[in-house]
Amino acid sequence: MVKVSILTVSDTVSSGTGPDMSGPRTVFIVNSSSEKLGGAHVVDTAVVPDEVDKIKNVLIRWSDIDKVYLILTLGGTGFTPRDVTPEATKVVIKKETPRLLYVMLQESLKVLP
Q: 3-state SS string over 59-106?
């Protein structure tokens, strides 16, 4: 089994003032596509505000302690000063995977052109 965790980064969702529309949908997509994804299964989800330290702490716990194979981050990728998911992620990762990003973008454009 490929352990997957999903982190939703959103001030609105984490404060309880808005629903998490992307997290549950992503869990469904991953789990329903498990066979195509080499046995991938979501083992954990979390929601944090747009704060570098909170994002980093979850990413480090999942990767170093829980030994999650794939972490999907949702949100926090806009152009406002509070959108810091890419910056927080880059502090934690050892290697970027631009080809994976390209494939994910390419596939998402099939659904949302």
A: HHHHHHHCCCCEEEEECCCCCCCCCCHHHHHHHHCCCCCHHHHHHHHH
Q: Which residues pair with 35 in a beta bridge?
A: none
How confident is the model at residue 90, as a pLDDT? 95
Q: Round the CA-based radius of gyration of the chain to a whole number and report it.
A: 14
Structure-token pair, residue 16: 């309880």
Q: Which H or E run contains 16?
A: none
User: Amino acid identity of 107?
Assistant: E
38 dihedral zone (left: phi>0; alpha: psi -120 to 50; beta): left
Q: Are 42 and 6 in contact (CB under 8 A)?
A: yes
Q: Is the pTM of this model over 0.85?
A: yes
Q: How is residue 88 written in tokens?
A: 């927080």
Unique residue bearing structure tokens 């995977």:
97
Q: Find the distance separating the first CA and the last CA of the chain, reported in whole Å.
A: 32
